[in-house]
Amino acid sequence: MASTPFPCLCLFQKPNPLTVSSVASDRLNSYSTLGLGTTQSSRKFGITVCRAAPVTFRNLDADDFRHPLDQQNTVILRAIPGLNELGKALLGTVAEQIMLLENIGTSVLVSENQLPGLHQLMVEAAELLNVDAPDLYVKQSPVPNAYTLAISGKRPFVVVHTSLVELLTREELQAVLAHELGHLKCDHGVWLTYANILTLGAYTIPGIGGLIARTLEEQLFRWLRAAELTCDRAALLVAQDPKIVISVLMKLAGGCPSMADQLNVDAFLEQARSYEKASSSPVGWYLRNAQTSQLSHPLPVLRAREIDEWSRSPAYKSLLKRGIPIKSPQDV
C-alpha cells in the first residue's frame, strides 16, 4: 500500500490505481470497489424499483453504525495534529483531473430520464442513510465492480460496471449502492489517505523506519477490513434484510447468473460457521491470521457472519426502533 501513488480501498479485486483510488483530504476522496450477483428475472431496470424498506432514518450519524475497530482507528487518525494540512499539501489538481476524466469520460450518467430505475434505487438508499445522493454512472466492463469518488467543489459520484448490474437483483444492487454511500458518509477515503501518508513518512525515517512503516501498514489493513464491515452495516440499514446482504457476499465468493437460483444463503452461513470453527484452534487461528493479515478486505464468509450477528444485535434493533415507518403506496 505504501508504494502505491494513489492508494486503493477496494472490496475484492484490486483495481487499477488510476481507476479506483483514495487520494483524499477534502480535495479528492475515492473509496471502494465491489462485484456482485442476480437472477435472470431482475436484470432489466424500469421505473419500478425494489420494495421500500420498512423504516427510514432521520439524523442518522456515521457513528451510529460504524464498526468498533473502524471507530477506534478513526479516532486515532483524528487525534494526530497537522495531518489534515499535510494531506492537502500533498494532493493537487492534476490527480483530480485524472480521476474525473478516467472515470466519467466513457460512462453513462444515470438520471430520471436515463436508466430511471437505477436512479431511484440510489435516491432511496441515500434518503435512508441520511446522505446526499451522489451522481451515478454506468460503465461498460466485464469485471463486476462499483466505486465512489468525491472531488472538492464537485458532486461525489458512484460508478457501477455493466457486468455488476447484470449479476444483481434490484435489492442486491441497492445494497451495493448503500455500501458505497457508507464509505461517503464515513469519510473513509479521507482517513485512508491520511494513514497512507503516515506510512510513507515512516519509510523515510533512517534505521527503524521500515519496521515502523510495516507496523503501520498492518494497522492500516486492519482498519481497511473494519471499514468494509462498517459499510456492510450501511447496506443492511437500507436492505433491512440480512439475507440480501449475505446473498451479495455469497455471490461474490462463487456465484454466477446461471446458478443464481440454486444458491442458498443459509448454507453459506453454515459454511461461515464451519470456517469459524476450523480456525478456532491454535493452528487454525495462526493460519487464519496469515491468510487475512495482508488483505484489505475481510473474507466473504467472515463478512457474512459479521452481518448476520449484527442483524441480531441490540444496536441494530435499536436503530430500527428509532426509524420512521415508511408508508406503502396503498397507505397514501
Topology:
Elements: E1 28-30, E2 55-56, H1 68-78, H2 83-90, H3 93-104, E3 107-110, H4 116-128, E4 135-139, E5 146-151, E6 157-161, H5 162-167, H6 170-185, H7 188-203, H8 209-239, H9 242-254, H10 265-278, H11 282-292, H12 300-311, H13 314-322, E7 324-325
Parallel strand pairs: 4-6
Antiparallel strand pairs: 1-5, 2-7, 3-4, 5-6
Query: Into how many domains do the coordinates divide?
Result: 1
Largest sheet entry: 5 strands, mixed
Low-pLDDT stretches: 1-32, 35-52
Large-scale geometry = globular
State the distance separating the first and last CA atoms. Answer: 52 Å
Radius of gyration: 20 Å
Q: Assess the beta-strand content as a share of residues.
A: 5-15%
Counting helices, strands and paired strands, the structural category is alpha+beta
The number of helical runs is 13
SSE pattern, N- to C-terminal:
EEHHHEHEEEHHHHHHHHHE
Q: What does the average pLDDT come to?
A: 75
**What percent of residues adopt helix (DSSP H or I)?**
40-55%
Number of strands: 7
Main sheet: which strands, in order across?
1-5-6-4-3
GO biological process, one term: proteolysis
Protein name: Peptidase M48 domain-containing protein
Keywords: Hydrolase, Metal-binding, Metalloprotease, Protease, Zinc
Cofactor: Zn(2+)
